[in-house]
Specification:
The protein has two domains: 50 residues, duf1285 like fold; 82 residues. Helices cover 10% and strands 37% of the residues. It is built from two helices and 15 strands.
Length: 172
């Protein structure tokens, strides 16, 4: 058997090494696997959908895009790189009309005025706009796309245009 401990000494006479990193309570806000933000506006961990809506909102609000273009989550001491399938944010909802203009609701629960000059149609007729002070592109989810397009009109040349005030913004 080892020697009994006396105040200020350790059994065996040696002190255990001092911890240089603080102990954690066993909870981490960021999943340990590969984190992906999908073009469908859903979060994934190792290709499995993260079903917890509160975690998804937390991730959307905590995500930043560095000057190097890399998406990251930082929550306290937890950090993870995020793979972005298409855009770092998606448009979930559109409100407004041609007279007042439009607002877009993003997946991080922010609402911004739609800048119609930033609208563009990408591959497979996917609609995009610039958000976050025109810093980033956002993909319109299907419901938001249809909500905006219900205001579109057909131009003489057969293309779609979005009326905004006294202007018509070409869509494609």
């Amino acid at each position: 058997m080892g020697q009994p401990c006396q105040r200020g000494t350790w059994a065996g006479g040696e002190r255990p090494p001092r911890l240089t990193t603080p102990m954690r309570a066993g909870f981490t806000a960021i999943h340990a696997g590969r984190i992906t933000f999908g073009k469908d506006g859903r979060w994934y961990c190792d290709d499995e959908v993260i079903a917890n809506a509160a975690i998804c909102r937390l991730y959307a609000r905590a995500m930043t895009i560095g000057e190097d273009g890399v998406a990251r989550l930082t929550l306290g001491e937890d950090r993870a790189q995020v793979t972005i399938e298409d855009t770092p944010w998606v448009v979930r909802q559109v409100d407004g009309d041609p007279v007042r203009g439009y607002t877009v609701s993003l997946n991080d629960d922010t609402v911004e005025p739609l800048d119609p000059d930033t609208l563009r149609v990408g591959d497979q007729h996917v609609l995009y706009c610039r958000v976050k002070g025109r810093q980033h592109e956002a993909r319109f989810l299907r419901a938001a796309y249809y909500e905006l397009l219900r205001h579109a009109v057909v131009a003489r040349d057969g293309r779609l245009e979005l009326p905004v005030g006294d202007r018509r913004i070409p869509l494609g």
